[in-house]
Amino acid sequence: MSLDALPIPAIDDPRTLFEMFCRSCKIHHDQCAYIYRAGAQEIEVSYHKLFEDVLLLAGAFSKKGVAKGDRVMLLADNRYSWIVTDLAIMSLGAIGVPRGSDTPAQELLFIMENSKCTHLVVETEALFEQHRPNQKKMGGLKNIFIMTGPAIHSMFGKTYSYQDLLKDRTYSDRDVERFLERGREIMPDDLLTVMYTSGTTGMPKGVMLTHSNIMHNVRCIPGIIALTPEDRWLSVLPTWHIFERTAEYVALAGGCCLVYSSVKTFAQDLVEYRPTVVATVPRIWESLHNRVLTALRKKGALASSIFNFLVQVSVKFRRSRRILNDQLPQFHHPALLSRLMRKTGAGIKCLFLGPFYLLAQRKLKLVQERFGGRLRLAVSGGGSLADFLEDWIDAVGIRIVNAYGMTECSPAIAGRGLDCKTYGTLGRAVVHTDLRVVAEDGTECAAGEEGLIEVRGPQVAIGYHNNEVETNRAFTADGYLRTGDLGRMTINDELVITGRAKDIIVLASGENVDPTRIESTITMFPFIEDAVLVGQDRKGLAALLVPNHEEFKGWAEKTFSNLRKETEELLSDNRILEQIRKEINLHLKPKRGFKAHERLMGITFLEKGLKSGEELTNTLKKKRHIIERNYRQRINQLFQ
After folding, report:
1. Which residue in 427, 445, 453, 605 has the fewest CB atoms around it within 10 Å?
2. Residues with Cβ within 8 Å of residue 498, at least 6 apart in sequence
3. How would you classify residue 414: left for phi > 0, otherwise alpha for psi between -120 and 50, otherwise beta?
4. H or E stretch at 61
5. Is 608 helix (H, G, I), strand (E, B) or coil?
6. What is the per-residue pLDDT for 617?
């Protein structure tokens, strides 16, 4: 049956995700919506087929009692079935509660209880078996649905595979009408999803996002990146992460084709599928950067040296050209003479480096081919790109759209889109968004002054589910969300992030880590008085440790024989440090509720304790941005 023959609305200005979905399927019905692999087979899905898949699954869910307002736990990773399930839940007016397959059992139970989930969708039968022992603890659970695997439903049972649900894939005009009728009942202010993000108490907080919140991003992001239906996205991030989830909604709204990839095949898929847009996190760019350099080293020292020279030429030329064009951050109005001298110096550099830069551009096009050759921009979020990495990507000719956001903002707050020429910033706030930087006393900072970033706008969440205390703590009296990040504004209202005032650590992979629980586990060791977890925008975690000297010496003497060093020397002994790191990691296992990325890559002992008033507040809370600033060199050594 053709979608043209069905009464599907193509609303010009969709207000809900359902209206957007219907509009996109109506307009782009013959175009390819998704490409994914099932084993060795590659499968293409049109917008017509996507509509049918969502229609059928929504109907099956409805028959099993999933209704408007129900909370549905979605425990799965990237796959086409994820987006179909998400859209089917949404189309019923139900509320999706997504989480990755690596979610520890204790955390899953907490989320399901906190969000009052009455239905559970799991990715595989193996994942279902993993959580089966806790099934009785999931009070109020009506149904369990398994995406993959054979038919498993038995009489009086409440567990169904999608094979059970979708045995009959036929539908009538009346089925479509019921689907649309349910969708029309969805209002912009209806709750769309509860997304759990790491909190300061060890258990995650449920961010409540409405259709209106997400649709703000869906409407504003295409203009920032000049999106068209001809664009092809390559998806590699976890779909349950707000950054990737919204990116997929944006691609869907724009009539684009999205290809599901994986971390293992991402580099290969860039070449094979030749995307025009990718949404990534810094860790992926680190990996691609290392791949290129490793390949060059294999070609010999000369090839590697020439490449590095051309990159440095490109970096210096582009920086000088930006000085000439006023395309670098400005935090104050420079004196005329100072500005003239700076531009004169930049002009001389451009004249000198010009011929080398033209050569560099020709040679560096080979690197662009490793990214498919059609990549017109890459959106980077989920953490800040290291300066050297951003310079490298820019030098080889790839346009990075540095994005700043958080789950509580659906996620977009600001982004250096194609309309922003100021390099080294996050651009201005996205449309209809108020952004300010304030001092600790709440007064607004002048341009160039560092302060706390606060945001207000239609994309900001309505609060944390069943957590009034955290909701009240997160918002100011005049309705601004406290992001917990530090930054400063340029004289042109562009944002520059300078650090993090709040505790949550975001790894280069985009994973959020609550340091307090890990630090508490570390300080269970009697010879460790205090611990500070580090790893913001890094590929893993490490820890700064404050020793209890007496206890440490006793432990070392019991653990190692023939020690002849003084305590101070033992604290930096690599053999001892490695043993301590291994013992700590034994306590940071999934069985204890920790995830794989929460293990430590390195540790170092500090010579003295943390200073009260400088590195600790009066109530002995850690000022993490101060500690990281004071020990920056030591932290860098931990990740080398």
Report:
1. 445
2. 450, 486, 487, 488
3. beta
4. helix 47-63
5. coil
6. 63
DSSP β-bridge partners for residue 612: 616
Tell me the sheet residues that pair with 99: 75
Measured CA to CA, the distance from residue 260 to residue 62 in angstroms comes to 28
Report the alpha-carbon distance of residue 167 to residue 161 in Å, rounded: 10
Residues in the chain: 640
Take residue 72 and report the two structure tokens written for it: 């549905």
Tokens 């969440």, located at residue? 461
Nearest to 265 by CA among 44, 103, 33, 36: 36
Cα separation, 273 vs 258, whole angstroms: 10
Name the residue with higher pLDDT: 612 or 150: 150
Burial-class residue 621 by CB neighbours within 10 Å (0-12, 13-18, 19+): exposed
Half-sphere exposure of 78 (CA within 13 A, CB side): 21
User: Which is it for the CA torsion 631, 636, 639, 640, positive or negative?
Assistant: negative
d(Cα 127, Cα 133) in Å, to the nearest integer? 11
- The span from the CA of 215 to the CA of 17, in Å, is 7
d(CA 191, CA 193): 6
- Best CA proximity match to 80, nearest among 252, 255, 285: 252
> Do residues 550 and 528 touch, judged by C-beta distance below 8 A?
no
CA nearest neighbour of 601 among 577, 624, 625: 577
The residues with which 233 forms a beta bridge, in sequence order, are 258, 277
What does the alpha-carbon distance between residue 339 and residue 365 come to, in Å, rounded to a whole number? 34
What does the block give as tokens for 552?
A: 């440490």
DSSP states of 93-158: T-EEEEE-TT--HHHHHHHHHHHTEEEEEES-HHHHHHHGGGGGGSTT--EEEESSSS----TT--
Please, which residues have CB within 8 angstroms of residue 74's CB and are 6 or more apart in sequence? 82, 85, 86, 89, 96, 97, 98, 99, 121, 240
| Residue 531, strand partner residues | 545
- Concatenated DSSP letters for 188-241? TTSEEEEEEE--SSSS-EEEEEEHHHHHHHHHHHHHHHT--TT-EEEE-S-TTS
**CB of 350 within 8 A of CB of 427?**
no
Residue 314 has pLDDT above 70, yes or no: yes
Is 509 in a helix, a strand, or coil?
A: coil
Predicted model pTM = 0.84
When mean pLDDT is compared over 135-139, 201-205, 444-448, 561-565, the highest value belongs to 444-448
Phi, psi (degrees; rounded to nearest 5) at 42? -100, 130
Weakest mean pLDDT among 51-65, 87-101, 562-576: 562-576
Checking DSSP bridges between strand 400-405 and strand 412-415, what pairing results, if any?
Answer: antiparallel
- Which two three-digit tokens encode residue 194? 């509860």
For residue 593, give the amino acid letter. Answer: G
Beta bridge partners of 45: 34
Q: And the tokens for 377?
A: 């921009």
pLDDT tens column, 483-536: 988 899 999 999 999 877 777 788 988 887 878 789 888 988 888 888 999 999
Measured CA to CA in angstroms, residue 198 lies from 71, 102, 111, 413, 417 at distances of: 20, 15, 11, 19, 28
Residue 352 confidence (pLDDT) above 90: yes
The C-alpha atoms of residue 143 and residue 12 are separated, in whole angstroms, by: 37
| Whole-number Å distance between alpha carbons of 305 and 293 | 10
